[in-house]
Amino acid sequence: MSEVISLETIEEIARQYGYWAVFLGISLENAGIPIPGETIALVCGFLAGEGELDYKFVLLCAVGGAILGDNFGYWIGKWGGWPLLLRVGSWFRISEAQLKTVREEFSSNAAKAVFLGRFIALLRIFAGPLAGIAEMPYSKFFLCNAAGAILWASIMVSLSYFVGRLIPLEKLVSSVAQFGIGALLLVAVVFVVPRILESQDPLKVKD
Length: 207
Fold this sequence. Notes:
mainly alpha
């Protein structure tokens, strides 16, 4: 998404709207809308390091946006996300059985997925809705979500606040994005792909 919206545009938005940019951007991304919230957090942390924004307020807005957005995503998934997920899956020729496998894998690792999912590309967007779809208990979701939001926001904002003074912002954003994609591929290889292949095993189906 950050490739569609240039880094320069995100910087302009951050400078114009300040704390609202980081709060709303991260809220919408965590609610399930593909907005580059991670990049917005990094940019606003960088601007805080430059003295244009206050570090504490950027961090508070990032934490608040992440918590609020994931809560919206959770209830979207809880109230009707599964039919929507089935529809989207059909567009990519993903069967209902395969999607159920993904849901079951997420459900068995829900706490870890919600807590650490913010650091993984795409999962940061879909963790909230998937938690609702998987019927993760709300109290457990809220605690994991809040803890993950505090950790993620602290790292993202602090990283660009301090490291942004040493290396170009563009390189920092690119490196963080590559880490997220790498983490996504690792999760897919270790958890999701084996379960999908297992569900398609004709011998297992016969059993």
